[in-house]
Design goal:
The complex is a heterodimer. Chain A is an alpha+beta fold. Helix content of chain A is 34%, strand content 14%. In chain A, a hairpin with a 2-residue loop joins β3 and β4. The longest helix of chain A is centred in the last third of the chain and has 16 residues. Chain A starts with a strand and ends with a helix. The relative contact order of chain A is 0.16. By secondary structure, chain B is α+β, with helices and mostly antiparallel strands. In chain B, the strands form six sheets. A seven-stranded mixed beta sheet of chain B has the order 9-10-7-17-14-15-16, with helices on both faces. In chain B, strands 12-20-19-18-13 form a five-stranded mixed beta sheet. A four-stranded mixed beta sheet of chain B has the order 21-22-23-24. In chain B, α1 links the parallel β2 and β3. Classes of the chains: A alpha+beta, B alpha+beta. Chains A and B meet through α2, α3, α4 and α5 of A and α3, α4 and α12 of B. Chain B: InterPro entries: Ald_Oxase/Xan_DH_a/b, AldOxase/xan_DH_MoCoBD1, AldOxase/xan_DH_MoCoBD2, AldOxase/xan_DH_Mopterin-bd_sf, N-heterocyclic_Hydroxylase, OxRdtase_Mopterin-bd_su_IorB.
Chain lengths: 154, 709
């Protein structure tokens, strides 16, 4: 009873029932807690991950659905030593308060910038609509994503 | 709400000390030096995402003359941290920050004296550079680190320490980056939800089918993953080694539980508020003879129950080891939580060691304390095994404390020139504080569900001197000869109520600033000029003029479907000043497109962090007034998901410009809540400007706008 896939570049086997959610596999046996539980109903975006480069809600996705595929979580985007441009911009602009929503938002931003390398502000807002932030860091987050887009375009 | 809530300290003959130092007087309660060159700072206030730990570190580094990276801020824990009550009310810089400023200034002085004495170099000739004490010739005479073991701080603070003057400060007043944010951005374990202990069990609570329902039976049946049931009266939970098994088991048990449910919730909240029994008190009364008025305005403002809506759900971990329960919690007040655990579990205070761990933003008293009791109860039943409880989204929105529904009745008079003559304001509400640790009975959710249950205590409204609750900001900040402010505190509490960011200020400022706009219109005055003419407080006039200038208020051009409005208030009448100008677009529904904010928070410790708080409060206020209302039927809260309790999404968020009026010499006042009331008032006035209606019902949805006179 395990599902094999590539997690942040490494081959893993998640010892969990195939019908369990990817979020349960990540936060449970795989021990990566950066992907957040917020609602369990695809309504807040806190659990967003990339599956083969496409954004997916890990809270409702059965782990069996990622069998043999590539999964990227916030931990796979960058580190303090080698941050992703989105992460660097978030920190430069102090674009967060409690920070709980930021894992999913970073994943969304990375997916957006892959599709639309130089988005307009309105495109960033629209792309982030599936994500909730309660602290009111929205405008800083938008500015950070636009800054990251600029940096990545250089 | 915090130390101020306690009122004046007993006159015990000891000198008055700043902030929380008054009640936690030993210096080593606040800081200690480590030989490896680190200052450990131990405040009792906690990080909620507001950046307080960073601000406190800046204050400490400033006074000690050490580089900021040397400060290591330790999260609060009982019984060692100073008891700073609750992290709330925009008071942390005043209470914790001013204590730390004084304690660190005194610590620096103590080390300086000892090093001067030992070296024979005069105190006045020694300079402190990043913790090193240097002679005039640059010789190293000693350091905080070389004397770290000398117990120099094992003394009570004295009133004599002299912190730096405003013009000497180099670290405070600058926009230092948040210390906690990198780990949160990189997804490293830092939140309480991320805490994992060896052998830990995961638990879920199975909630009653209705408020106040009693549990009749739970049908037997198989559960996944070896999950086991815990039952104590109507407190029903399930534990499993793996989290998803606990989750699945809770759903199965919910389907097998039979409850004796009855109707307890009012059919129509506004009518219930008007009719429910309560105690009416006078908040403030000022009698004056006034001439006959030219204009009278009388209006009732209704605000529904609203709630916190943390993005992360409440969580706690507990471990029962022998006589001691170790509890990890995101409570805003660990000593207050301990006081209620003592009552609910009938154990001494020494039985609880409580460690704060950061959670998602809470914006007031959400279920953080409730879930800690639930974890403690389950840990007591499973000694030696750590137990983690996590709430579901439905519990978070449906069972956490809610912020009270309110009526604000205003009756006011003005003369022909618009000058205010009389103002009466009557606020009707449940209590705005059901926080633990303040009464005879525990306020924690599960306490009323146990086999030996506790009655649910009615939430309170702290006195105005402590910031107030329902009556917060019920006293207008304008020059008014005859004034009467009253409050009816309702005796029955169908939904458990408690503190949400801003408390009663949101509804009161909305009501006051709406009536001010109506008087301005009645006398043909511009809303800005009208207010400026009746504000005696120069700092209120300054923020209002600044916000209006930022928004180009005097040059505004009317656009079809758009409206602009403004509002101003001094938070609590004693805190920060803030003014807001809003631009709204009234399409199928109302959207707030832009906000201009000007605030005066006195001395600013971290300008960027302060602006982040002011802007965050503004966006939350926009969401609250445009969208939010707790929905319920006769038995339960039905708005228990993000579809039924919508909050503002990215495409609906206004663009914001915010600025701070510089007052480096003035006492700091806290920034987390000051923008909320003015933003709601400004949005309401902007809607009136666009649609020529007067809003009396919150939220400002198409349905409520249609009701407006």
């Amino acid at each position: 009873m395990s599902t094999s896939f590539h997690l942040n570049g490494a081959a893993v086997a998640a010892p969990i029932e195939p019908e369990a959610s990817l979020l349960a596999a990540l936060r449970g046996p795989l021990g990566l807690s950066g992907t957040r539980f917020g609602c369990g109903a695809e309504q807040c975006g806190a659990c967003l991950v990339l599956v083969d480069d496409l954004p997916q809600f890990a809270c409702t996705l059965p782990v069996s659905a990622v069998d043999g595929r590539r999964v990227t979580t916030v931990e796979g985007l960058g580190t303090a030593e080698a941050p992703h441009p989105v992460q660097r911009a978030l920190l430069e602009l102090q674009a967060g308060q409690c920070g709980f929503c930021l894992s999913g938002i970073q994943i969304r931003a990375v997916a957006l910038l892959r599709e639309v390398p130089r988005p307009s502000e309105d495109q960033v807002r629209a792309a982030l609509d599936p994500h909730l932030c309660r602290c009111g860091s929205h405008n800083r987050i938008i500015r950070a994503i636009l800054r990251a887009a600029e940096e990545m375009a250089l | 709400m915090n130390l101020a809530f306690l009122g004046p300290q007993p006159a015990d003959g000891r000198p008055k000390l700043p902030g929380s130092l008054q009640v936690n007087r030993r210096l080593d309660q606040w800081l200690r030096m480590l030989p490896e060159g680190v200052v450990v700072l131990t405040p009792g206030k906690v990080e909620l995402g507001q950046g307080i730990l960073t601000a406190l570190a800046q204050i400490a580094a400033e006074e000690l003359d050490v580089a900021l990276p040397r400060i290591r801020v330790q999260a609060a824990a009982t019984p060692t941290s100073p008891d700073e009550a609750v992290t709330s009310g925009s008071l942390s810089v005043q209470e914790s920050g001013m204590a730390i400023r004084h304690a660190c200034a005194e610590a620096r002085g103590i080390f300086l004296s000892v090093i001067a004495q030992r070296s024979g170099v005069s105190r006045d000739d020694i300079t402190v550079r990043d913790g090193d004490f240097l002679a005039p010739d640059g010789r190293l005479l000693g350091s905080y680190w070389s004397l770290a073991g000398a117990a120099l701080l094992a003394v009570e603070a004295s009133p004599d320490a002299t912190p730096k003057r405003a013009d000497q400060r180099r670290i405070t007043g600058t926009s230092t980056a948040r210390l906690d944010l990198p780990e949160k951005v990189f997804g490293q374990p830092r939140f309480i939800q991320d805490l994992r202990l060896p052998g830990m069990l995961h638990a879920r609570i199975v909630r009653p089918s209705a408020r106040g329902a009693t549990l009749l039976s739970v049908r037997e049946g198989p559960l996944p993953g070896g999950a086991v049931i815990h039952r104590d009266g109507g407190f029903l939970a399930v534990l499993a080694a793996q989290e998803h098994h606990a989750e699945a088991a809770a759903l199965r048990i919910a389907a097998r539980a039979e409850w004796d449910a009855r109707d307890t919730l009012p059919e129509q909240v506004e009518d219930w508020l008007a009719a429910a029994p309560g105690e009416t008190t006078t908040v403030l009364e000022r009698a004056a003879e006034t001439p006959d008025p030219a204009n009278r305005i009388s209006a009732r403002f209704y605000r529904p129950f609203v709630t916190h809506g943390s993005i992360g759900t409440c969580c706690a971990v507990a471990l029962w080891e022998g006589e001691v329960a170790r509890i990890w919690t995101h409570s805003q007040g660990i000593y207050n939580l301990r006081a209620d655990l003592v009552k609910a579990m009938r154990l001494p205070a020494e039985a609880f060691h409580i460690q704060h761990v950061e959670g998602a933003g809470c914006y007031g008293h959400n279920g953080a304390d409730d879930v800690a009791l639930e974890a403690a109860l389950l840990a007591r039943a499973n000694p030696g095994t750590p137990v983690r409880v996590l709430w579901t989204r439905a519990e978070e929105l449906g069972w956490g404390p809610v912020s009270p529904a309110m009526l604000v009745d205003v009756a006011a008079e003005a003369d022909a020139g618009g000058r205010l003559l009389r103002w009466s304001q009557h606020v009707t509400s449940n209590g705005h504080s059901g926080r633990p640790g303040r009464g005879q009975l525990p306020t924690l959710l599960a306490a009323s569900m146990l086999a030996e249950p506790f009655a649910v205590p009615n939430a309170i409204n702290p006195p105005l001197a402590g910031g107030g609750g329902a009556q917060r900001n019920a006293v207008p900040g304008y020059a008014i000869p005859a004034l009467q402010v009253r409050m009816t505190h309702l005796a029955e509490m169908p939904l458990r109520t408690s503190a949400l960011r801003g408390l009663g200020a949101l509804a009161n400022v909305w009501a006051i600033e709406s009536v001010m706009d109506e008087f301005a219109a009645a006398s043909g005055a511009d809303p800005l000029a009208y207010r400026l003419g009746q504000l005696e407080d120069a700092r209120a006039r300054d923020v209002l003029a600044r916000a209006a200038e930022m928004a180009n208020w005097s040059g505004r051009v009317r656009r079809e479907g758009f409206g602009m409005g403004l509002a101003v208030a001094r938070y609590k009448g004693t805190g920060a000043w803030c003014a807001a100008v809003a631009e709204i677009e009234a399409a199928e529904r109302v959207l707030c497109r832009r906000l201009w904010l000007a605030a005066d928070v006195g001395e600013v410790i971290n300008p960027d962090g302060t602006l982040n708080q002011i802007e965050g409060g503004a966006i939350q206020a926009t969401s609250l007034c445009l969208l939010e209302a707790v929905q319920h039927d006769a038995r339960r809260v039905t708005s228990d998901g993000w579809e039924s309790y919508p909050i503002l999404r990215f495409s609906e968020v206004p663009r914001i410009e915010a600025s701070l009026v510089a007052r480096p010499e003035a006492p700091p006042l806290g920034a987390g809540e000051c923008s909320m009331g003015p933003v709601i008032g400004a949005i309401a006035n902007a809607i009136s400007d666009a649609l020529d209606i007067r809003l009396r019902h919150w939220p400002f949805t198409p349905e409520n706008i249609a009701k407006a006179p």
